[in-house]
Amino acid sequence: MSFRACSACLLIILFYFSPQHARGQIAHGGTPYGYALKSAVEISFLTMPKVDNNAMIARDAYSWNKSGPYNFGEKTRVNLGLDNSGFWRTLENGDRIWNLGIHSSGAYSINLIFSEYELPAGARLFIYNEDRSDYIGGFDYRNNKAHGKLATSLVRGEAIIIEYYEPASAKGLGKLRVGSVTHAYRDVYKVAKSLIPGFGAADPCTINVHCPQGDEWQDENRSVLMLMVNGSGFCSATLVNNSSNDGSPYVLTANHCIGNNDGSEFVSLFNYESPVCENSYPRIDQTVSGTVVRAKNKASDFALLEMSESPPANYNALYSGWTRSLTPPTRYICIGHPSGDMKKWNEEVHRGKEFGYWRTSPKLSSGQTEYGSSGSGVWDQNGRLVGQLYGGSGWCDDVNLINYWGRFDRSWEGGGSDSTGLKNWLDPAGTDSMYVDHFDPNASSNPEITFQLNMAYVEDLFEGGVVRLHIEEPDAWVAMTDTSGDGVYTCTLDLDPGTELSYFFSYQNGSDSVNDYLDERPGLLGKECVDDEGNRTFTVEARNQTLPAVLFASCLVYPELPEITYQVDMNEVDDLYEGGGVWVSFGNWDNWWVMRDDDGDGIYTATGLLETGTNVKYFFGYQTGPNDNSDYTGEKQQLRGLECANAVGFRLLTVPDSDLTIPVVVYGTCRQAITQVFDLPDVEPASLFYNAINDQVLISNASEVEHIEVFSITGQLLIDMDVNRQETIQINTNSLKKGVFVVRLRLENKRIQGVKFLK
After folding, report:
1. Tens-digit pLDDT profile for residues 326-361
2. What pLDDT, on a 0 to 100 scale, did the predictor assign at position 746?
3. SS3 helix, strand, coil % of the chain, rounded to 5?
4. Which of 25-39, 124-138, 380-394, 601-615 has the lowest average pLDDT?
5. Consecutive H or E run containing 54
6. pLDDT for the residue 730
7. Taking Cα atoms as reference points, which of 238, 112, 259 lies closest to residue 176?
8. C-beta neighbour count of 378 within 10 angstroms
9. pLDDT value, residue 313
């Protein structure tokens, strides 16, 4: 095969470009060195043979069936190495950079397989497209494999640049050779201009995994992946557990997907799914390159692969449980990637006639399987894998659709050897288990229980005094700390689920005195105080929890009342006296809460308990001089089309039955609350607020949220942040351009919640 250089070299100006999207399998971060070069560099592009996209799609349609990968690209064998292609340039310090440009006219994306890949320490590899809008890498010595290959995921566009950096200390030690180039004749990314039905290639009756029908199957969903086969096709697959629960990265798919390949050129793509029920843009950056075929058998059409490394913790992958029971399930749940599309869910109905396969058809209005679904897992009513998709045929309106699933129990012994059966791989200890439940490598061994005591209303706490938690059986005192300086003391313990605790609090009201809560005092807002002993009992559940308590003098209340947090942004107020006070007042100055700017960012907050259903009238005040208190009186002009408070500045709140944060922005004496509000049903009682005035997203009551990502409408990851279960999360969005964005939340129980907002 011969290639020709472009008739005119493309002049690439590498001048501090900022990448928009970086991915890898598994990549180890960094930015291409070429992005930082100030001088112009000429790169000659090798032009690949012409591929007729429409002809390729027509060819696939003619041979359509479910017994093979879903083809998306045409792969061309090449021999492009450091010794016979591209060009080198030497930097002033002796380091070297090798570049090779590849152009394939009309390609939606390009992906590569390196037939030789062995990088020394310090060397790095990047691949990026012509306009720097997409790149993968950096890859380094940690991506070296025993088989000496590296398969990559897709880079958008019809022209890519390979960049290999080699430090002077490792000159000539690297081995790098492109063995094949795949021209994508299908737009795998399906980058649409708006969110419309039919986002991907799957039929419209297919159901996204985050629709309500799939709510109870989110654990199983985390084990599903899309398998890129030899750089040109897609199948579905499932990460499976073994009886040792040791995280060995075994993947179950269909034998007919892998053919006679050894798996070294496969790429596993995780979490290719819409984060919400409606069609949205999936992430495409979580991949693992390379597998080894451990076992396969045509009889039940299974193949067991082992990935070259385990998926990292941030992939949030789960190893699926399985059963080898011969009894037909009462439910069949399938999750896969029909037509190479985002992850889809469907439920199947048993059709009997069991031989080597389960025989089913899709339940009415529950989706379907398609070309590319091959290898999809099917689970029983207990969430255990019972097989993988072999084949079938049909469309959304085909009432006679039949699917066939290779049975797990038939694959267990298989052909009676390690290379033809699942048994010795998935039961390495020889337990002879009939079933194994799923394994979550990211689950904490014990739940964290946070004890929280609000001392802000106690006047006789000795300055610098000790606040402690006492636990009976075992008899232990635990120091509590006020880390935020707001009078709320906390301590967190790892406790075994099922543990029964009896506990109480104590605090120091003098230099040598420790008081515990023994006095009975009148209730507050109709709530009773503790008994004479001051003890409270609690049984630890298998989840993280916070146990709040509030002390009023010596009366301890365990609040069932909601906490209402008022939050006021004073950054645009010019006449706030330096060091002056800010308050929220309830009807008059006899009933008010002091607000504090604990973080020094101009955001003042106050939190307290209010009775559910109460209609609360409130306004804000702040100090404009040494002896001057000024509230928001007088009507002011409208600001950016939004109304200010009424003549006396009051607002009304009907207290809900759950905690609530109320964010407010003040401009002079004109105050405005948020402009968009979104409920988060999977994170109840959390809410997401978008404030167009101060260009922020606020999430209240967010203690279940561990991680947040913000994607553009084209699927680019723009914001990626760990939040560590904060009550209120603030995301500055001033760096984002106008448009629609998807906020993706990962919760402590590993569920995913997504919501869109418009900027």
Report:
1. 888 888 899 988 878 888 988 876 655 555 566 666
2. 80
3. 5, 45, 50
4. 25-39
5. helix 53-62
6. 82
7. 112
8. 28
9. 86
* Cross-strand partners of 514: 508
In CATH terms, the fold of domain 207-436 is Thrombin, subunit H (2.40.10)
Q: Coil, strand, or helix at residue 615? A: strand
- Answer yes or no: are the C-beta atoms of 284 and 275 closer than 8 Å: no
Distance CA 325, CA 347 (A): 20
The pLDDT tens digits of the residues spanning 571-629 come to 777 777 777 778 777 655 446 677 888 888 888 888 876 766 667 777 777 777 765 44
Report d(CA 598, CA 406) in Å as an integer. 60
Mean pLDDT over 227-245 rounds to 93
- Topology of domain 561-673 in CATH is Immunoglobulin-like (2.60.40)
Domain boundaries defined on the chain: 4-184, 207-436, 448-556, 561-673, 676-759
The C-alpha atoms of residue 55 and residue 644 are separated, in whole angstroms, by 61
Cα dihedral angle (252, 254, 257, 260), rounded to 10 degrees? 80
Q: Residue 680 pairs with which residues in a beta bridge? A: none
- Pairing type for strands 740-747 and 705-712 reads antiparallel
Question: How far apart (Å, rounded) are the C-alpha atoms in residues 646 and 634?
Answer: 8
Determine the Cα–Cα distance for residues 691 and 693; give it in Å rounded to an integer: 5
| DSSP conformation letters of 430-456 | ----SEE--B-TTS-SS-EEEEEEE-T
Is the backbone of residue 701 left (phi > 0), alpha (psi -120 to 50) or beta? Answer: left
DSSP for residue 48: P
DSSP designation for 18: -
The pLDDT of 169-197, averaged and rounded, is 77
Q: Give the span between the Cα atoms of 731 and 696, in whole angstroms.
A: 6
Give yes or no on whether 207-436 and 561-673 have one common fold: no
What's the residue count for the chain? 759
Question: Nearest CA to 46 among 105, 113, 128?
Answer: 105
Categorise residue 216: left if φ over 0, alpha if ψ from -120 to 50, beta otherwise.
Answer: alpha
Task: Give the bridge partners for 373, in sequence order.
Answer: none
| Prediction pTM value | 0.59
Report residue 209's pLDDT band, with 50, 70 and 90 as the boundaries.
confident
For residue 124, list its beta bridge partners.
Answer: 165
Phi-psi region of 94 (alpha: psi -120 to 50; beta: other; left: phi over 0): left
198 pLDDT band (50/70/90 cuts)? very low
**632 exposed, middle or buried (CB, 10 Å; 0-12, 13-18, 19+)?**
buried
CATH class, range 676-759: mainly beta
* Cβ–Cβ < 8 Å for 86, 80: yes
Query: What is the C-alpha end-to-end distance of the chain, expressed in Å?
Result: 50
Is the distance from CB of 151 to CB of 143 less than 8 angstroms? Answer: no
Q: In what order do the strands lie in the sheet with 670-673?
A: 603-609, 563-572, 660-667, 670-673
Structure-token pair, residue 194:
């708006």
Distance CA 336, CA 198 (A): 17
Beta-carbon contacts of 478 under 8 Å, excluding residues fewer than 6 positions away, are 451, 468, 469, 470, 471, 491, 493
Write the CATH number of the domain with boundaries 448-556. 2.60.40.10
Single-letter amino acid code for the residue at 215: D
pLDDT of residue 667: 53
For 298: left if phi > 0, alpha if psi spans -120 to 50, otherwise beta; the answer is alpha
Examine the pLDDT at 645 and tell me if it is beyond 50: no
151 vs 736 pLDDT, higher one: 151
Q: 146: which 2 tokens?
A: 């025993």
Checking if the pLDDT of 31 tops 50, the result is yes
Name the amino acid, one letter, at 653.
Answer: L
The rounded distance, in Å, linking the Cα atoms of 254 and 303 is 5
| Residue with the larger pLDDT of the pair 107 and 342 | 107
> Does residue 502 have a pLDDT over 70?
yes
Contact 404, 390 (CB under 8 A): yes
